[in-house]
Each structure stands twice: as C-alpha cells, then as structure tokens.
C-alpha cells in the first residue's frame, strides 16, 4: 500500500520527478544558519541569533530570536521566524 503522503504521478517520467525535488535557489528572505551547538545559531547574512529553549510548563521547545536591531521575538505563542534582512554588504549595495 502506498503512503498517503506519496503524491507522485505514476505516469510521470523519472527525470521529471527528480527535477521537482532539485535544490531550489535561496531567496532573499531565507536565513543561512551557522550552528554553534544544538541550541544556538547565528545567521551568516543578517546576524540574527537564535536560541532554542525548553518550556517551563511541559515537554515543548521554543525558539527566541535576537534581531540585529536589538529586539527579540519568539515562537512560544506562534510567531513565525522573522525574515532575513541581509546587511548592505551582503546585498551588494553601495
């Protein structure tokens, strides 16, 4: 029996299937993380720091992001990951 998540068309050629799963280019809003350990990472492009923390109320982990402008955000209450805002040096602007 096929997996319910398997959405491949059996009539599709193998080379077309491989093309669908090819590496997609990085968009300007994606972070490029350098992992320091299991719980800390820094974005190489914008300098955002991420820290994974355990919840004090149960078996749940949440992430706190420290943005380059000094503000913080977290996903404890469902906030999405802040977008990557590369510095002018990374974008090639003069």
Care to describe what's here?
With 94 residues, this protein is an alpha+beta fold. The protein contains 2 helices and 5 strands, in the order αβββββα. The chain has a 5-stranded antiparallel beta sheet, with no helix packed on it. It has helices at 14-20, 88-91; strands at 33-35, 40-43, 49-54, 61-66, 72-74. The protein has a domain at 30-84. Strand 1 (33-35) and strand 2 form a beta hairpin.
Main features:
about 10% helix; five-stranded antiparallel sheet; about 90 residues; 2 helices; globular; alpha+beta
Let me know the largest β-sheet: 5 strands, antiparallel
Low-confidence stretches: 17-23
Helix content: 10-25%
* Total of DSSP H or I helical runs spanning 4+ residues: 2
Strand order of the largest sheet: 1-2-3-4-5
Structural class: alpha+beta
Ordered list of secondary-structure elements with their pairings:
Layout: H1 14-20, E1 33-35, E2 40-43, E3 49-54, E4 61-66, E5 72-74, H2 88-91
Antiparallel strand pairs: 1-2, 2-3, 3-4, 4-5
């Amino acid at each position: 029996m096929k997996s319910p998540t398997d959405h491949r068309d059996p009539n599709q050629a193998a080379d077309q299937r491989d093309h669908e799963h090819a590496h997609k280019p990085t968009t300007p809003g994606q972070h490029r993380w350098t992992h320091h350990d299991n719980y800390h990472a820094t974005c190489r492009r914008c300098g955002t720091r991420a820290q994974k923390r355990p919840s004090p109320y149960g078996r749940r982990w949440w992430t706190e992001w420290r943005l380059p402008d000094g503000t913080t955000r977290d996903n404890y209450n469902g906030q999405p990951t802040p977008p990557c805002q590369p510095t002018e040096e990374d974008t090639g602007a003069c």
